[in-house]
Amino acid sequence: MSQTAKALSEQAVQLPPVERMALVERILDSLDVPDASLDALWLHEADERLAAYRRGEIRAVALSDVLAKYQVSKPA
Fold it and tell me: What's the rounded Cα separation, in Å, for the pair 25 and 12?
């Protein structure tokens, strides 16, 4: 990590939690650069999955079933 990054990091951890979170979101947003080729690949994948569903090759799963599968049970 550069000296500048270290200094910024040290300053950032002194901020109140709400401000730190806003800073994190701003930094992450700066990394989210659209990639047309990646978007095209995902569009193709989505089209293929929809076509397979319509042909009866794959089935839909209820959102509640998906969420239940990954639900973490709380200790009693």
Answer: 13
Q: What is the average pLDDT value for the chain, to the nearest integer?
A: 93
Q: What domain range includes position 10?
A: 1-33
Question: DSSP readout, 7-74?
Answer: HHHHHHTTS-HHHHHHHHHHHHHHH----HHHHHHHHHHHHHHHHHHHTTSS----HHHHHHHHPPPP
Co-location of 1 and 16 in the same domain: yes
Assess contact for 20 and 12: CB atoms under 8 A.
Answer: yes
> Across residues 2-28, what is the average pLDDT?
95
**Rounded distance between C-alpha atoms, residue 29 and residue 6, angstroms:** 20
